[in-house]
Amino acid sequence: MPPDPAPTLAFEGEEYVRRLASLRMAMDEAGLDALILSDPANMRWLTGAAASPVDGPGGHAAVLATLSGAPLWWGPEAALPAAKRSCWMADGALRAFAAPEQDGPHPFSALADLLLELKLGRARIGVELDAPRFTAAGVGALLARCGNAQYLDATGLANGVRLVKSAAEIALIREAAALSEAVHGAIREEIRPGVSCAALTAEIARALHLGFEESGGAAPAVPASFDPAAEAVAPGLAPALAAAPAAAASLAAGAPVVIAIPAAQLGYHALEIRSASLGPVEAEAARTEAALRAAMGAALAAAAPGAPAGLMAEAGEAALAAKGIEGGRVAGAAIGLAAAPEWREGSLAVDAGAGAPTPIGATLHLCAEAPTETGLLRLGRTILMTEEGAEPLSGDPEAFEI
Question: Cβ–Cβ contacts within 10 Å for residue 148, how many?
Fold first, then answer.
């Protein structure tokens, strides 16, 4: 049998070692002996494992970090080959379990056995209680097999550590923002009255996958979305997760259309949102669109390293109010490796009154929205917090009218 191919790492090994050291500092501060990561983004961040758990009763995976040694990837045998291709650790740190039999023990029974093997039967173990696959049945299996350990809620601990991005991570998010911006420019000629939503969706997907000479393509975590009716949904990251309109529908003249295009490079995301007018721009829409640009500019100007994230939202909303816009809002959240449906990188949110500081190296998606008589207009950008303030990772949005 030929040997397994060498792993294809997204980053240099030193990058993962640095991440592990940073996570251990947080674990030590929290008084943890070990940490079970079940959030797929956190697992990928620490190990490079890009494979999702397989479907079915055996479809569980986790990463176990302790205060010494390499982290351990734990998952079903079916996912082991993919883990070998993407993890930076040696094969001995990849621990697979056999697919459970029908009505057999929960896969977390095997995870409990691993804890016992590592002499963690009485340890203080952090767990991510909000992770999708960290279920009540799994907790029951851990307690039944390894009940003398203390399981402590460590939700958000790893997310907080990876909130500040490395230079290599920032480079990928910058590439993703450039790709999203390039797709927006490429589809402008396709956005016109009478074009079917199915055709526009296909064109966006084609452009995202093929990319451009200056920006390589990649499959996004979620499909791009656009709202020809510009109906109100929550601002921030929500527009990218809105359900696409019916394939049989067509873009109608006289209404604004909001296009949200998420792009990703090696799992790191950016999201650019633009609005367009299908036909001549009415005076109200032009005034609102200008107000959105002013709000985005005010929000970016208010950003400062270490300052409360809510200042950006408050400055943006004040700019909207100064332009006479009622019902407008500016909001957002940290963005990066986390994918749909959550997207958020930790608890950092950009909302009026939010007091969490924005550290240097954090990347965020910022969205301004305002209503008009014909629909809601939005403008969204991906930004990086630097020593000088907020740096947009894409160019200035093009003109509103199409």
Answer: 10
Backbone angles phi, psi at 366, to 5 degrees: -120, 130
Which H or E run contains 364? Answer: strand 363-372
Handedness of CA 304, 306, 308, 313 (dihedral sign): positive
**If we measure between CA atoms, which residue out of 395, 188, 380 comes closest to residue 293?**
380
Q: Count other Cβ atoms within 10 Å, centred on residue 283.
A: 7
DSSP state of 79: G
Nearest to 21 by CA among 72, 73, 74, 67: 67
Q: How far apart are CA 245 and CA 226, in angstroms?
A: 8
For the entire predicted model, the pTM comes to 0.89
Tens-digit pLDDT string for the chain (402 aa): 445 556 678 899 999 999 999 999 999 999 999 999 999 899 999 999 975 555 555 578 999 999 999 999 999 998 999 999 999 999 999 999 987 777 778 999 999 999 999 999 999 999 999 888 888 999 999 999 999 999 999 999 999 999 999 999 999 999 999 999 988 888 887 888 888 877 887 888 888 888 876 666 766 655 555 555 443 333 333 333 334 444 457 777 777 788 888 888 988 999 899 888 777 777 888 899 899 999 999 999 999 999 999 999 999 999 999 999 999 999 999 999 886 556 667 778 899 998 999 999 999 999 999 988 877 889 999 999 999 999 999 887 765 544
Element (H, E) at 34: strand 34-37
The DSSP bridge partners found for residue 125 are 34, 151
- For residues 259 and 185, give the distance between their C-alpha atoms in angstroms, rounded to a whole number: 11
